[in-house]
Amino acid sequence: MQGSNMLTSNSSGSPVFTLTGLPGLEDSQHWMFLLLGVLYTVSIVGNSLILFIVKEEQSLHQPMYYFLSLLSINDLGVSLSTLPSVLATFCFHTQEIAFDTCMAQMFFIHFFSFTESGILLAMSFDRYVAICNPLRYSTILTDARVAQMGLFIGFRSFCVDFPMPFLLKRLPFCKANILSHAYCLHPDLIRLPCGDITINNIFGLCIVICTFVPDSVLILLSYILILRSVLAIASQEERLKTLNTCVSHICAVLMFYGPMLGVSMVHRYGRYAPPYVYTLMSLVYLFVPPMLNPIIYSIKTKEICRRLIRLFFGTKL
To answer: What is the domain-level CATH number for residue 229?
Structure first.
């Protein structure tokens, strides 16, 4: 943006950030808005349907589907936290965002990201108990314990995310604060201050070490134990049937950690790549999992698939 839009602060002295759409692809941004509109619609409608079906279907009142409900709530949170600024940037061409608004959006985007990692870990524990210790499943994963796990995941996410806006707020911003996306992300914001960002970098590293690293390692460990248990089953048909109960969760894990790793690799090693590559990778990370999770679980979970068919086509079909 030119002229007055390049100012770094408003009349009150607070920094103002400039959101961007797709650098180098400005002429195609109206098509991008249509694509993102479809992704938002599928994500919001799909996850809302999952919540409705789990609530209404008594047979789905089980730990596995409680965790799926938490995942759907979290995916709705991811979509709704990015929607205002994406809509403003691509539809209304309003590219300025106030500092406090940007910090709030950053907080919620990362909060839901940390929470999703914890929910995926809880779901892997659910699959581990169901396959490796089925006789104790109902006593280990009680409704109260599922609620406690959900509260702990949310509390952990809040604790690791809460300091980030305040650590950024203490830093001076003295140049054109142009962001790489149509929303506020910590890795993007941390490159803009003029002051020393050592503490911010250390804190960001500690967050990764305390959340994503242990979560991903424990998920991998749970599937190693699950695979060992499945291989002990004599019948190949029973093996495939047991592994089939994990397919949806494995897809959800790959869709979450795959784009996250891709964003990290492009950000670290793709300095010569076109600017829109990093933007597109971030869009995949934030938009694809909330859209595909309800689709995959609807296809792979017979109970949800049947209820959807009854909902849209009537009970006779």
So the answer is: 1.20.1070.10
Question: What is the count of structural domains for the chain?
Answer: 1
Contact 127, 246 (CB under 8 A): yes
pLDDT single digits (tens) 166-198: 999 988 888 778 888 889 988 888 888 888 889
pLDDT digits (tens, 9 = 90+) for 7-34: 455 545 578 898 887 766 566 666 777 8
When pLDDT is averaged across residues 127-134 and rounded to a whole number, the result is 93
The domain in which residue 68 lies consists of: 3-313
- Which pTM value belongs to this model? 0.90
**Is residue 128 pLDDT above 90, yes or no?**
yes
Per-residue pLDDT, averaged over 133-141, amounts to 93
What was the pLDDT predicted at 5? 40
